[in-house]
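pls read this protein.

:::
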Amino acid sequence: MLHAGEYSCVIANGERIRTFTRRGVADLYDLLVQEPEFLHGASVADKVVGKAAASLMALGGVQQVYAHTISQPALHLLQKAGITVNCDEVVDHIINRDHTGWCPLEQASRELQSAKEIFLVIENFISSQRKNT
């Protein structure tokens, strides 16, 4: 469904399925903040999972994740949280949209260990982005 529908993310919880098309972690962040119960026990299919997205999934209590591409730090964080992970490709880090360097959130969360610490970085990042648009 993820690839066939050209979605960025598909989340299933029981009979309920939601699809998302925005890039980045905004959809996961909004879901965690506004409807955390939907993430609890859910299965997530995502095209690209970096450490920031992984932290949101861990905080939300996601049960399993499929990622087309996942960073090694994201994989480690999910496994440490006891989340089942399947993926097609593991990379050292997620690159930015311009392919000129690291994804900003991957870079910002690089040295952070806990999902709660990373959440604060994501919250500030998204707040800043939304003020600029």
Summary: The domain at 9-131 is CATH 3.40.140.30 (Cytidine Deaminase; domain 2). The chain has one domain: 9-131. The first strand starts at residue 9 and ends at 13. The chain has a mean pLDDT of 95.
